[in-house]
Amino acid sequence: MPVINRIAEFHDEVTAWRRDLHENPELLYDVHRTAAIVAEKLKAFGCDEVVPGIGKTGVVGVIRGRKNGSKRVIGLRADMDALPIEEITGAPYASKVPGKMHACGHDGHTAMLLGAAKYLAETRNFDGTAIVIFQPAEEGGAGGKAMVDDGMMERWGVQEVYGMHNAPGMPVGTFGTRTGALLAAADFFTVEVEGKGSHAAEPHKGVDTLVAAANILLALQSIVARNLDPLKSGVVTVGAFNGGHAHNVIPQTVKMLGTVRTLVPEARDLLEKRVVETAQGIASAYGAVAKVDYQRNYPVTVNHPKETDFAVKVAREVAGADKVEPNVTPIMGGEDFSFMLEARPGNMIWIGNGDTAACHHPAYDFNDAAIPHGVTYWVRLIETGMPAG
Ligand code: NI
After folding, report:
1. How far is the CA of 82 from the centre of ligand 1 (A)?
2. How many other C-beta atoms lie within 10 A of the C-beta of residue 361?
3. pLDDT (0 to 100) of residue 4
4. 310: Cβ–Cβ under 8 A, 6 or more apart, which residues?
5. Beta strands of 184-299 (E only): which ranges?
6. 81: CA distance to ligand 1 center in Å?
7. Are 110 and 134 a contacting pair, CB within 8 Å?
8. Max Cα distance, the chain (Å)
9. Ligand 1 geometric centre to CA of 322 (Å)
10. Residue 382 dihedral angles phi and psi, to the nearest 5°
11. In this predicted structure, what is the pLDDT of residue 3?
12. Distance, CA 165 to ligand 1 centroid (Å)?
């Protein structure tokens, strides 16, 4: 079963929705316009229930199949938020909001799930209930967690949940996923090093905070190399290092911001412990003091085996067997669909975005050619997972 004809018919319409969302990007939980459009369309499609305000600004739509003997309930999830990036695509539908853009394709994800909702509400050719989930704040705000914490899974009796994200570099019409860890746990740390400020010409009268901090930065690089099992993955990156203002002053404080990425719980625990110990120990060796604020953010995105086998089967029916990679390499990015996968079994799949700039690049754009493939995949997950017979 390739792209469903009826879905191919509304490719232009879904593209227009996508481009409208692209022109009007909104950040984190502040997705009021986007959520209002989503809710209005779901109502217009004839969804049985449309509930905004789940997890602050998330929207849930309920579509009942023409039969409900199976009592099965499957959730499909899209994200709605954009990023604080200045767009440079030059597209005719480029962002109209300075400093904000859809640089991760969540405009495309939202439009594709709306397209699937339109088709499913029109045809209802399944036995059970489809729940369409539109979440805010994927980009660092844990909107997926907010929706789970709001009782979404229990309220609608969601039994399985599926996610989809575009993948630049994978050809349009292809899919990829894997059982187990697909994306990393993404944690954040802040190290504030305090020495003793002094005249640059009299370092012996102070404690050089910059020298201590520079050694902490270097020592942090040895954690993955020397502490972590080489067969387990980990990343420690310091992305900001700020201290001092003058040629001739040793500053009192230096602040570092960084992130830690891991794929298994043991590595996550180990790296947290070693980041704190290293920062404090090195600071102490230089006579300075390091305060470490370590925040666990998104957990590992773990795909469940049974649901992943099912997702691969459906994707192969839609795209062709040779267009679906069932064992992709995990990536060290984070994704807050992980919270939904902690709450219910399910799968996240990549959908090819073609030869575009990478996600979070100012020249990135979602590829509208992927729309019929993504919409058909969503629809067939429901129709295959809950067949009406
Ligand atoms: Ni994204």
Report:
1. 9
2. 15
3. 86
4. 347, 381, 384, 385
5. 185-194, 198-199, 234-242, 249-250, 253-262, 289-298
6. 9
7. yes
8. 84
9. 25
10. -70, -50
11. 85
12. 7
- For residue 80, report the distance from its CA to the centre of ligand 1, in Å: 9
* pLDDT band of 349, cuts 50, 70, 90: very high
Cα–Cα distance list, 44 to 13, 35, 50, 134, 383 (Å): 14, 14, 10, 16, 22
Distance CA 15, CA 197 (A): 58
List the structure tokens of 372: 């019929």
pLDDT number for residue 1: 64
CA distance 12 to 229: 50
Output the CATH code of domain 185-298: 3.30.70.360
pLDDT of residue 23: 98
Q: How many CB atoms lie within 10 A of CB 154?
A: 10
CA of 267 to the centre of ligand 1 (A): 24
CA of 207 to the centre of ligand 1 (A): 43
Do residues 195 and 208 lie in contact, with contact meaning Cβ atoms separated by under 8 Å?
yes
- As a dihedral over the C-alpha atoms of residue 97, residue 102, residue 103, residue 109, rounded to 10 degrees, the angle is 180
> If pLDDT is split at 50, 70 and 90, which confidence band does 252 have?
very high
Please say whether the structural domain 5-183+300-385 has been given the CATH code 3.40.630.10: yes
Segments making up each domain of the chain, as ranges: 5-183+300-385, 185-298
Assign 25 a pLDDT band (cuts: 50, 70, 90): very high
Q: What angle do CA 114, 120, 124 make, to 5 degrees?
A: 160
CA of 105 to the centre of ligand 1 (A): 6
Please state, in angstroms and rounded to a whole number, the distance separating the CA atoms of residues 45 and 62. Answer: 11
What are the pLDDT digits (tens) for 160-189? Answer: 999 999 999 999 999 999 999 999 999 999
54 pairs with which residues across the strands?
58
Q: pTM for the whole thing?
A: 0.93
Distance from first CA to last CA of the chain, Å, rounded? Answer: 17
CA of 333 to the centre of ligand 1 (A): 10
